[in-house]
Specification:
By secondary structure, the protein is of the alpha/beta class. The protein has helices spanning about 10-15, 40-50, 70-80, 95-100, 135-160, 160-170, 175-180, 195-205, and strands spanning about 25, 30-35, 60-65, 85-95, 105-110, 115-120, 175, 190. The longest helix is centred in the last third of the chain and has 26 residues, at about 135-160.
Length: about 210
């Protein structure tokens, strides 16, 4: 579990906190690229709090294969609780916890070739050689609780039943942008501009 505190910051401090390449304050854009982990969540939430001081929309561009469950849930909660309208644009691959983060957007937008992946929640257990049976029971309860929250969030945002989602997650399920849209994982797909050569061909036919 991560804990993020946000206080008032001077402009110079804000600039220092802005991670190079991860935020564009002028255009109100945040970039979530790569694995989701504690450091990623902390930086994104810090930048989100700065941008959320005004009411204009915030755009989050995401390309992520997922990562840590606690970090993903921290980002999800921060985006859901932001005062500003949050538009999440996803490209490349959005997998595992990144799919949960995608659901936090007031508007969820996919680029045409985006792949969305969902699967079962798992917890990495360190130091197994020192654990007795009571520790395994604790981890088992935690996995069940995280799984329950994972399916509940997906069900609330997609309109799919938890039963169907559990069935889909028995193995890794990959969805095209069109499939993800049809199943409620996104609200729209960006329309690509026409290819220039096609325009030229149409002009020649006229």
């Amino acid at each position: 579990m991560i804990k993020v505190t946000a206080g008032k910051m001077r402009a110079s401090e804000r600039a220092a906190e802005a991670i190079e390449g991860s935020v564009d304050f002028k255009r109100r854009r945040i970039y979530l690229h790569g694995e989701i982990e504690t450091a990623t969540a902390t930086k994104l939430i810090t930048n989100l709090h700065i941008l959320d001081e005004t009411d204009a929309s915030i755009r989050v561009h995401m390309f992520s294969v997922g990562g840590d469950v606690a970090a993903g849930l921290a980002i999800y909660d921060a985006l859901r609780c932001a005062k500003s309208r949050v538009i999440i644009e996803a490209g490349g691959e959005v997998a595992s916890m990144a799919t949960i983060v995608l659901q936090a957007g007031d508007e969820r937008v996919l680029y045409p070739e985006t792949r969305v992946m969902i699967h079962n929640v798992y917890v990495e257990m360190n130091g197994l050689q020192r654990m007795d049976s009571s520790y395994f029971a604790v981890y088992a309860r935690e996995i069940c609780e995280l799984s329950r929250r994972y399916y509940r969030i997906l069900a609330e945002h997609t309109g799919q039943s938890e039963r169907r989602l559990r069935s889909m997650c028995q193995r890794e399920t990959y969805l095209s942008a069109q499939e993800a849209l049809a199943l409620g994982f996104a609200d729209s797909i960006v329309a690509p501009k026409p290819l220039a050569r096609h325009d030229a061909q149409r002009r020649r036919r006229k």
